[in-house]
Amino acid sequence: MLSRLLPDRDMSEIPENFLPIESIGIEDIDNLFESKCFSRHASQAIDQLITYLGDRSTRGLALTDPAGIRAAVTRLTLGGQTSDTAEHDRKLAEIVDLYLQTGIQVYSPGYMGRQFSGPFPVTAVVDMVSAIATQPASFYEAGALPCVVERVMSEEFNRFLGFPSDRFTMFTTSGGSLANLTALLAARGRRYPQAWGEGMGETDCCPAIAVSSDVHYSITRAAGILGIGENRLVRLPLDHARRITPAGAREALDAAAARGLDVFCIVANAGSTSFGAIDPLDELADMAAERGIWLHVDGSHGGSLIVSDRLRPRLAGLNRADSLTLDAHKTMFVPAACTLLFYRDRDQATAAFRQEASYVFENTSDVYSEYNSADRNFECTKRPMIMSLWALWAMYGRTAIAEKLEALCDMTRKAHGILSVAPDFVPLHLPETNILCFRYLPNEQLSPKALGALQTEIRSRVRARGRFFISKVDIDGVSALRLVLMNHRITTDHIRQMLDEVRAVALTIREEFPQSEEI
Amino acid sequence: MLSRLLPDRDMSEIPENFLPIESIGIEDIDNLFESKCFSRHASQAIDQLITYLGDRSTRGLALTDPAGIRAAVTRLTLGGQTSDTAEHDRKLAEIVDLYLQTGIQVYSPGYMGRQFSGPFPVTAVVDMVSAIATQPASFYEAGALPCVVERVMSEEFNRFLGFPSDRFTMFTTSGGSLANLTALLAARGRRYPQAWGEGMGETDCCPAIAVSSDVHYSITRAAGILGIGENRLVRLPLDHARRITPAGAREALDAAAARGLDVFCIVANAGSTSFGAIDPLDELADMAAERGIWLHVDGSHGGSLIVSDRLRPRLAGLNRADSLTLDAHKTMFVPAACTLLFYRDRDQATAAFRQEASYVFENTSDVYSEYNSADRNFECTKRPMIMSLWALWAMYGRTAIAEKLEALCDMTRKAHGILSVAPDFVPLHLPETNILCFRYLPNEQLSPKALGALQTEIRSRVRARGRFFISKVDIDGVSALRLVLMNHRITTDHIRQMLDEVRAVALTIREEFPQSEEI
């Protein structure tokens, strides 16, 4: 795998005759828009993708020195643009080849490390169609189909989510970070309606947001962006499985109030990034209701569990949230970004943004503008990201997603079982989703610092070997290894092989550093 | 065109046997990941796209009643998911057909109305490859190729932009609105470094942003989002061509200071949304430098002019901006979103966000993490949007983009010429880019209100006829018609035909409303 990573010729050499040409003429440009040009390019790329998807080998990431990739990119960038179609074909082939060889091999069972996956291949076809069809999805006029599809899909999801059907809303937005920011903005707008016009300088109390101590960085960033202040986060304590503890949360909220902080929003995880932990949503909803606080659930990773009849109970209480982020590009297996943002009450959604722009916003509402989402989503030009998810749902059915997700969660539990009985490993929690953190335990007792350093070194070396890709995470300052199972082709055999790989690299580390504390 | 918009069977009827099935099995799911499944889907979609791209007819938007589309979408969503591959193929064909028939027909010369275009078809192929290759572009580990490509492309662009080569930075982000927000955040961070941690409540002066009176709504939104306050915008006056006047700007800035406002950022347009107007960047840069103000240039529409040797002089002074937004999905003809955000000084870029997340951010910088952009861009999972732009640039050369852009700007000037000599039209400005606003003038004298209402009605009716698609814009409260020429196949004949269409609908309006003031 590593050996075929890059073309074997010397890529740092840029021939003299590869200097850019200065003109190709409008007729040549027009040819590039001809259907036969598209046909040639597309057929060729598809052949390459077929080969790629057919490769069932176990492999991780071929982590390459940037200098090698850079030389290849530079050569392709600077060299020899002509109107010669054969040359175009050759270059495209090289670009696609380079693309498929670099990066994490997400369709391989060796990939066990991040929250994205090789999407259902049909979604890639839909992305291609989306690029040609050009229906930006914030306004019905330009994006009639995706706008309607968002509406229909919102109703599909709400069959499982259970928000009030006459009041809820859902729309797509460009990534979980943007969805979280948007929801927090709506929460801010509810508590401080004057902030939009007058700024946060006019709030005379101390706005604050309560978050899981395992909050995603997009939430802490949002506090900085929105003028709340990153230091105004109230971190709620966690149990051994990294879930917010209701009692701890009550105490922390009381203490915050005593310090003069006005907590206007609680952010809970439904599938934390580190552990896949699901916070006690029902208890947090009680607390939020009692205190008049907005409850936002960051379900970027685990929100999709609602589409599985078997997994849905893990999200009990979700229907009581004020807002919910769900990344379909994580656990619904479509290309990034495809994030769904739900609000229990659509009036709160439109309060997030207020603006006027005559070239896009109509003053009068009509049958068309009712389908616009631009008053609720951040983007002006929004990619019709819903289309790939919808195609998948319409063609194969919800159950294709749900059953893949169930298979992944089941396999993660099996991995937990394997780790539990292995003498040289310790799983750190019973996985609630498809994420599992664990540590390798050497024979000798190590300090926490050395134990963490060992995990980090193991992770780097496993990655460097190129067969398996796992990730690492810091837990209270001590590193751990982390599995994210995104490929339904991963079997217990692959898990065992990966653990053997960890053992093997741990052995080499031991040989290099006989004093383990020095790693 | 209209007649073939939707399948002609009754779509509101959902047969009983189309109820969703409840299980398809993991083996069936695995088949959906097989290369032969992808091959079948892709080949079929490509055939449909070839037919679509081959249609050279003049047509605009088939604006459809949402109910019709909704019925079709509902039928496809609810009906008959099975593991039968023939059924999958049939559904995909129907989805693609529906997709291509709805929406604005952007590859047709009848389309003259918005800032997106039918992209170079090869970019759609690259989008498909991107979906399979799955290289999210914020971190080198996952997105090695797009991370390197961003770096190389930043250098390519800077050959024309002229920022200090040892200090500037460029990265992609998901849309012009997000790029503008990010740049304003960097500007806020420079003036109020404590705001990130402590919130905007701690700033004891009155932060304000000076903007063109024709500012895009994403900027006014950003003021609301960042805790500055939408009411803290200082609007700079415009000349007849809707460009900021330097003298007026000085006065407005002085007046703002006298009112106790601390203007920390000026936002200028390089291609305003309404007019395509380019503000006097050199004079504004002088003003910003004198007063220690950040200069952000919203070049979402017109920033791409820098790649044309002939058009570049229109952007004189751009190299003195602190930051620049450029939407390649507008005037570089790639799929949305593909936005480039430039900073003259990369240290300012990293000051926009501050955070820590052990599962993604490495504390130590190495040869790989140096290529990460997550410390500068908002997104965690970022679409590798640079890839389609790069493929275009590498395969066909910069000149393919530049010459298409020149052809569009030239044709817009020709349209201006045609309107200038027509007795029943008045162009409102000499176009600086490919956007031109104008009004139809009836024989009789109308009040401004009635004149505006007439334009709005003309625009709606032209749109409804389905042959041409133009847009409208409000100028100081009075509507005007607006051309945005994005298709190099538009000729002066098409312009004349469109004007004839306007005349024809104006005549029908006249017949229906003999008293023009009553429109």
In a nutshell, what does this entry contain?
The structure is a homodimer of 519-residue chains. With 519 residues, chain A is α/β, with parallel strands linked by helices.
Task: Report what the structure shows.
- Two copies of one chain form a homodimer.
- In chain A, helix 5 crosses helix 14 (386-396) and helix 14 crosses helix 15 (398-421).
- Chain A folds into three domains: 2-14 and 23-51 and 63-89, no CATH class; 162-381, Aspartate Aminotransferase, domain 2, CATH 3.40.640; 399-518, Aspartate Aminotransferase, domain 1.
- In chain A, the strands form two sheets. Chain A has a seven-stranded mixed beta sheet, sandwiched between helices. A four-stranded antiparallel beta sheet of chain A has the order 8-9-11-10.
- In chain A, 43% of the residues lie in helices and 12% in strands.
- The first copy, chain A, is globular.
- Chain A contains 17 helices and eleven strands.
- Chain A has 519 residues and is α/β, with parallel strands linked by helices.
- Residues 1-22 of chain A have low confidence and may be disordered.
- The first copy, chain A, has helices at residues 26-32, 35-54, 66-78, 85-101, 121-133, 144-161, 176-191, 195-198, 217-225, 246-258, 281-291, 328-331, 346-350, 386-396, 398-421, 448-465, 492-512; strands at residues 169-173, 206-212, 233-236, 261-269, 294-298, 323-327, 339-343, 425-427, 435-440, 471-475, 478-484.
- At the A-B interface, helix 1, helix 2, helix 3, helix 4 and helix 5 of A face helix 1, helix 2, helix 3, helix 4 and helix 5 of B.
